[in-house]
Amino acid sequence: MTATPRELTIEDRGRVRRLCADIWEGNDYVPDQFPLWIRSPTAHVYGIDEGEDIVAICALESIPGTGIAWVEGLRVSTRHEGQGLATQIVKHVVSEARRSGLRLLRYATGSRNVASQRVAEKTGFAIATRVGYLKIEHPYPPHPTPSPNILPLTISPERLYHYSTQYPDLLDTERVPLAWMFEDKSVDGLKRLGERTEFRAVIGEDGTPEAVYFYRVVGRGEQRRAAYTVYAIDRTAFVDVMARVVEESAQRGIHRIAVFLGKRAKEWSKYLGYVDKEYENRYFILYEQSL
After folding, report:
1. Measuring CA to CA, which residue among 77, 127, 57, 69 is closest to residue 94?
2. Which helix (H) or strand (E) holds 183?
3. Has this prediction a pTM greater than 0.90?
């Protein structure tokens, strides 16, 4: 198929919904996100047509004031997989980003999505970082009770940046994840994260930040889920934070938790005892491309 990708409009919403109807058992977020992208001054959505149907889509969403943008919502009709449509439309998005004067593109995917990784590599992206990834679902498994002697503190992005420079091992990945997105460890990057979350830290008796965690609730109704990010220097603090993640999610009526983990936290997660072993070697990968 050689149809040229075109920019979509709100009139394409029904076609996008049909495209995504059998993706993730009908629970794909893209149909609900699509009108938000269309209304946003920082986003553009492109699609490939076949007759009356859209058979591939991909969004380009920039971060205001940064020159950075995300390649998001890449979807191909299950009836048209293996025809090169994903590569074609991502190449188009990269071209549009370059034409718009953007300086950096980001593309994220899971370690099990080999097809998506190949698309990233074919279209000029290279791995920038990867973080641990796991899920815990309701009914939540037995887990430790959070310690009453550990009282996490809410801290500002500026304080987290200070900790990250004073204790370089704290944020031990090249980029910081939140809900399937990443930001720089710069003060500006952490401020942007702070607009979407609240940072909490476990501070040791000597003033050392032993763990940092934050979250964002995504989805609606029965599909509400929480995406947590956890970094830790101290293993005891990590175990306590993970117990809090489960407790807080249960109290909020969250039915599924996705957890993104720093390097040490990823290793320690293997010994928690209540995380499914299928997640021991799963990661979330960030690709980047300079334009």
Report:
1. 69
2. strand 181-183
3. yes
| 169, amino acid identity | D
| Cα distance between residue 24 and residue 28, in whole Å | 6
Residues 263-290: tens digit of each pLDDT: 999 999 999 999 999 999 999 999 999 9
Tally helices (H) and strands (E) across the chain.
8, 14
Element (H, E) at 116: helix 114-122
Q: What value does the mean pLDDT of the chain take?
A: 95
Q: Give the integer Cα–Cα distance in Å for 123 and 139.
A: 41
Q: Which residue has the tokens 């994903």?
A: 86
Domain boundaries, the chain: 6-102, 133-286
* Four-CA torsion 138, 253, 28, 95, nearest 10 degrees: -110
CATH of the domain spanning 133-286, picked from 2.60.40, 1.10.287, 3.40.630, 3.40.50: 3.40.630
Whole-angstrom CA distances from 260 to 12, 64, 242 are 34, 25, 11
Tokens of residue 41, six digits: 């001054």
Instruction: Write out the CATH class of domain 6-102.
Output: alpha beta
Kindly state the tokens that stand for 52: 């009356």
